[in-house]
Amino acid sequence: MSVLLKNIIRFILLILVQVCVLNNILIHQLVSPYIYMLFILLLPLNIPRPALQLLGLLLGLTLDMFMDTMGMHAAACVAIAYLRPFIINVLSPQGGYEVTQKTPSITSMGLSQFAIYVTILVAIHNIIYFSIVTFGWANPLYLLLKIVLSTAVSLFLVLLYELLFFVRK
Amino acid sequence: MRNLIIFLRRYFNFFLFLLLEVICIIFILRNNNFQHTAYLNSANAISGKLYTQYNDVQYYFHLKATNDSLVAENTRLHNELRDSFDFKDTTNTIKTDTIKTYSEDSTHKLITSQPRRWLYREAKVIRASVNQEVNYITIHRGRNQGIQPNMGVIGPSGVVGMVRSVSDNYAVILSFLSKLKAEKSFGISARLKNGGETGTVYWDAHDIEEGIMEDVPKSAKLKRGDTVLTSGYGSFPKDIMVGIVDTFYIADKSKTSISIRLRYATNFSNLQHVYVIENLLEAEQLKLEDSTKKVIK
């Protein structure tokens, strides 16, 4: 399957899962499970940075359209799309990753590197999104708890996704 | 000039990032304004269609509960039909939509004649969120079926929200499970059934079953389980169920009002049908109030 087709399918799949399943789950008022941003995290390593940011905007606006949160998810998505290359740069070994391995994954980055990469970006997404939703830091403890718990649940979902679609090399 | 171009090229990604974020922030700010019509929302064709199909499946799982609540509601409505009508001077106008009362003796005289004030339209819920700070409900009924922004919305067991924006066939409702920082005023004007004291009910984003009622005067006699109804001042008719008093406390000795925690009558997590209420006399009332304000100024 070509990389383009794979990513289009992933986009649709993640939005559908987010809208039809995860948004209907109410575990606790503090926990909002999110997985759709995995689309940005799993885009090919060699994608141009402007394209990455525009895809982030597209993904965010698509979800915003479904959730009536105009611009909120988009802002968080654009931010992680902008920061992604920096995180990859910091985590990558000397001389970058091998060109043959095109997408960030456990096999191409190594388990610990990939885990750090996902954790940082998911956390950034949640920090930005929940700060926007609650309009600032009026109740820092509540906000912090919400960010931490939601990030934990999101990471668990990413783990499930990786187990489902794990490709042994 | 050349240096400027080099500078722009060098930091192109950063400027693109700033531009996109500014676009997002403009979207957010426009959307927060209650007066603005929210344009790209779940009332549009793509998401409306998806939510309709999704709901078609989900609907079957709730059929039994939905039927039960509809039957209960029908019984209640049969008993209360008269409440949708209001007194009016009938000496010089002819209204077709009126309810007439006749005396019960043999003369069968006309006693009163009341025009319709509240018009209920049923609507199917195709999406409802409860896990956000601000929750929206999308219904399959829009401008073409007579829905307008700012109409009140109730469910089978109590108040639900206010219509926020409408498209041709869908409408988005701002649910009362919404904590709006920008507008403190988004709450339900409510009244205690026993004493008649009024207050405002709003949500504090902690529990989807519980809200807070404030500005109730200290003199109110309260006990657990008291009923809270709508006051009839806003977009809702009088005496629609809001919730039941759970606990109450005086936050501050110096304050003159009591805070009440109440359990909502509506179960927001399994809404299937709602009723959108149109106030047929609203235009007249608003016109009068506006002209009065102008006189005072």
How would you sum up this structure, described in words?
The complex is a heterodimer of chains A (169) and B (297). Chain A has 169 residues and is mostly helical. Chain A has one domain. Chain A has seven helices and no strands. Chain A has helices at residues 3-21, 38-41, 49-67, 72-91, 106-109, 111-133, 140-164. The longest helix of chain A is centred in the last third of the chain and has 25 residues, at 140-164. Chain B is of the alpha+beta class and 297 residues long. Chain B has three domains: 32-76; 85-115, no CATH class; 118-296, Rod shape-determining protein MreC, domain 1 (Thrombin, subunit H, Beta Barrel), CATH 2.40.10. Chain B is 27% helix and 31% strand. Chain B is built from five helices and 14 strands. In chain B, the strands form three sheets. Chain B has a six-stranded antiparallel beta barrel with strand order 3-4-7-6-5-14. In chain B, a hairpin with a 5-residue loop joins strand 3 (118-128) and strand 4. The relative contact order of chain B is 0.13. Mean pLDDT of chain B is 80; it is low at 88-96. Chains A and B meet through helix 3 and helix 4 of A and helix 2 and helix 3 of B.
Shape of chain B: globular
Major sheet attributes of chain B? 6 strands, antiparallel, barrel
What is the residue-averaged pLDDT of chain A? Answer: 85
* Total beta strand runs of chain B: 14
CATH superfamily of the largest domain in chain B: Rod shape-determining protein MreC, domain 1
Oligomer: heterodimer
Helix content of chain B: 25-40%
Name the structural class of chain A: mainly alpha
Percent strand of chain A equals under 5%
CATH structural class of the largest domain in chain B:
Mainly Beta
Report the major sheet of chain A. Answer: none
> How many independent structural domains of chain B?
3
First and last CA, distance of chain B: 57 Å
Domains of chain A, number: 1
Query: Approximately how much helix is present in the residues of chain A?
Result: 55-70%
Radius of gyration of chain A, in Å, reads: 16 Å
Please state the average pLDDT score of chain B. 80
SSE string of chain B, helices as H and strands as E:
HHHHEEEEEEEEEEEEEEH
Might you state the CATH topology name of the largest domain in chain B? Thrombin, subunit H
